[in-house]
């Protein structure tokens, strides 16, 4: 409780372990999860914060692979507290570790914009969950924004700009030219995780 992020990404501390089946995971420090075995993992974090300053507060979270090897996809989900009428901000983050090595360590990090809150994280109201997953096929892609993303009241397209990594193009294939990802085959289950990080500045105001 009462943790306030800085303007650069740094670890958020979570003190207690509520549930751990077996010895698959450990917590080498207060902001890091270590997996025991090599494989693929899904990380989910929910962080509740509070700001009583009657100002604007914009926190953001991500996962980072700090030790070991593997390919980590992480979202940059953002919460937003407008003023005292909406003084709670929830930050949600998802990470997918593909081909993580044994004893790989993943940290949950957060930051804010220039407006610091009064209050910060709410004690016993946040959590980080880890799930071992066993996908046979997967794809990781880079997406980039266009000016159309910033405006309008209807959904806008976000560009798929690069194929980062794919396991097998016979099963899943991204195309930066057509800006699509095609999943191939019947009777499959898919997990889709994505996010867009925005930065918008105007006179006298900055938001991240």
Biggest sheet features: 5 strands, antiparallel
Strand fraction band? over 45%
Question: What is the H-and-E element order?
Answer: EEEEEEEEEEEEEEEE
Any low-confidence stretches, pLDDT <50, length ≥5?
Answer: 202-208
- What is the 3D shape? globular
Report the span from N to C terminus.
Answer: 23 Å
The tally of beta strands, per DSSP, is: 16
Helix content: under 10%
Q: What is the tally of helical segments? A: 0
How confident overall, as mean pLDDT?
A: 85
Using only CA atoms, what is the Rg?
Answer: 19 Å
- SS-based structural class? mainly beta
Q: How would you characterize the overall build of this protein?
A:
The model is unreliable at 202-208 (pLDDT under 50). The two termini are 23 Å apart. The chain has 208 residues and is mainly beta. 0% of the residues lie in helices and 46% in strands. It has strands spanning 10-11, 25-29, 32-35, 39-51, 59-67, 71-74, 88-100, 105-112, 119-121, 127-133, 139-144, 159-166, 172-175, 180-183, 200-202, 205-207. The strands form five sheets. Strands 1, 2, 3, 5 and 8 form a five-stranded antiparallel sheet that branches. Strands 4, 6, 7, 9 and 10 form a five-stranded antiparallel sheet that branches. The chain has a two-stranded antiparallel ribbon with strand order 11-12. The protein is built from no helices and 16 strands. A hairpin with a 2-residue loop joins strand 2 and strand 3 (32-35).
Provide a brief overview of the structure:
By secondary structure, the protein is mostly beta strands. It has strands at residues 10-11, 25-29, 32-35, 39-51, 59-67, 71-74, 88-100, 105-112, 119-121, 127-133, 139-144, 159-166, 172-175, 180-183, 200-202, 205-207. It contains no helices and 16 strands.
